[in-house]
Amino acid sequence: MSNGTVIVTATANDASGVNGTTVITISNQSSAGIDINALSAGLKMYPNPAKSSITIDANEEVKSIVFINLMGEEVKTIVAPTHSVDVSDLAKGVYMLQIQFEYFNVNQKLIKE
What we know:
The chain is mainly β. It has one helix at 36-41, and strands at 5-13, 19-27, 44-46, 53-57, 64-68, 74-79, 84-86, 93-100, 105-112. A four-stranded antiparallel beta sheet has the order 6-5-8-9, with no helix packed on it. Strands 3-4-7 form a three-stranded antiparallel beta sheet, with no helix packed on it. Strands 1-2 form a two-stranded antiparallel ribbon. Strand 1 and strand 2 (19-27) form a beta hairpin.
């Protein structure tokens, strides 16, 4: 894996038939828990948790946003998003947002109420 981030979906099953799935983000860049790309883009996403819309502020132009549910499925993609992004159509839950800039991506967790 070259420098970057990979999102992996992990599923576990126990003997009683109960199963669970989660999304794991793996990065081979050591940044002491600080997302260097988010810092360089001046990225701010709010409110979080959100009900109907989120605001994306960044110093760089956002090319697209991909919403990924905890099953690892892409549920929504917005190309050339505006400053305010409608999330009212998303079901309540937790999503990973892949915010794509010209030369890098930033992953952010969104909680939809």
